[in-house]
């Protein structure tokens, strides 16, 4: 009973002194504060549930060793999920592609949407179009675009958001007009 209290006190002290460090450790590596909190709690849960009850000499080092294992498990789990989603996406995309090839109406509709999208892009102001094309078609990150265009990341975000909204409205209006003509 006394050893349970002393163990609980050790864990409580370690929690108070190390929890914030663990959260920062995980946040740097995951980029997500919610995951960082969850993973930090997992570290202490694993420590509490460990079968081996030998005393831990260096608690901080021990906790960060557990943290490394938790992080590796987290990355593996995310990679598996990503692979599953990727596989599902590829199957769906292949199915859609096959169906589209069979249906001339779908092909025509896609071609019309592409024409409308091209028209929408040409109507954008040049800097907005440049930011949008670099982001959507060239695959540059917002920070890379900001650096290349010599503007702030916030401005890049505004250009991209405005371009997306413009294109969506233009394509939707064009399709609406075509459906009324038919």
Span of the ends, CA to CA: 83 Å
How many strands, what sense, and barrel or not for the largest sheet?
none
Structural class: mainly alpha
Number of separate structural domains: 2
Low-confidence stretches: none
The gross shape turns out to be elongated
Figure out the total of helices: 7
- The radius of gyration computed from the alpha-carbon positions, rounded to a whole number of angstroms, is 26 Å
In terms of DSSP E residues, the strand content is under 5%
Fraction of residues in helices? over 70%
Summed over residues and divided by their number, the pLDDT gives a mean of 80
**How many beta-strand elements?**
0
Q: H/E order of the elements?
A: HHHHHHH
Keywords: Sigma factor, Transcription, Transcription regulation
Protein name: RNA polymerase sigma-70 factor, ECF subfamily
Family: Belongs to the sigma-70 factor family. ECF subfamily.
GO molecular function: DNA binding; sigma factor activity
Using brief descriptors, characterize the structure shown:
single chain, 182 residues, mainly alpha, Arc Repressor Mutant, subunit A, 7 helices, 0% strand, elongated
What layout of secondary structure does this protein have?
Blueprint: H1 2-30, H2 33-49, H3 59-102, H4 104-123, H5 126-136, H6 142-149, H7 153-181
Helix pairs in contact: 1-2, 1-3, 2-3, 3-4, 4-7, 5-6, 5-7, 6-7
Give a description of the structure.
This protein has 182 residues and is mostly helical. The protein folds into two domains: 77 residues, no CATH class; 74 residues, Winged helix-like DNA-binding domain superfamily/Winged helix DNA-binding domain (Arc Repressor Mutant, subunit A, Orthogonal Bundle), CATH 1.10.10.10. 87% of the residues lie in helices and 0% in strands. The protein is built from seven helices and no strands. Helix 1 packs across helix 3. The radius of gyration is 26 Å and the shape is elongated. It starts with a helix and ends with a helix. The model has no long low-confidence stretch (mean pLDDT 80).
């Amino acid at each position: 009973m006394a050893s349970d209290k002393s163990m609980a006190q050790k864990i409580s002290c370690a929690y108070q002194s190390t929890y914030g460090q663990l959260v920062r450790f995980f946040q740097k590596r995951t980029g997500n504060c919610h995951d960082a909190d969850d993973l930090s709690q997992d570290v202490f849960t694993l420590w509490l549930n460990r079968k081996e009850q030998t005393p831990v000499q260096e608690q901080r080092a021990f906790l960060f060793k557990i943290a490394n294992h938790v992080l590796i498990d987290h990355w593996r789990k995310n990679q598996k999920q990503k692979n599953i989603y990727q596989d599902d996406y590829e199957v769906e995309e292949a199915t859609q592609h096959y169906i589209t090839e069979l249906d001339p109406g779908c092909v025509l509709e896609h071609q019309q949407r592409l024409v409308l999208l091209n028209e929408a892009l040409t109507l954008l102001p040049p800097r907005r179009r440049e930011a949008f094309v670099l982001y959507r078609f060239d695959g540059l990150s917002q920070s890379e675009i900001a650096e290349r265009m010599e503007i702030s990341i916030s401005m890049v975000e505004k250009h991209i958001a405005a371009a997306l909204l413009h294109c969506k409205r233009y394509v939707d209006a064009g399709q609406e007009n075509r459906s009324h003509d038919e």
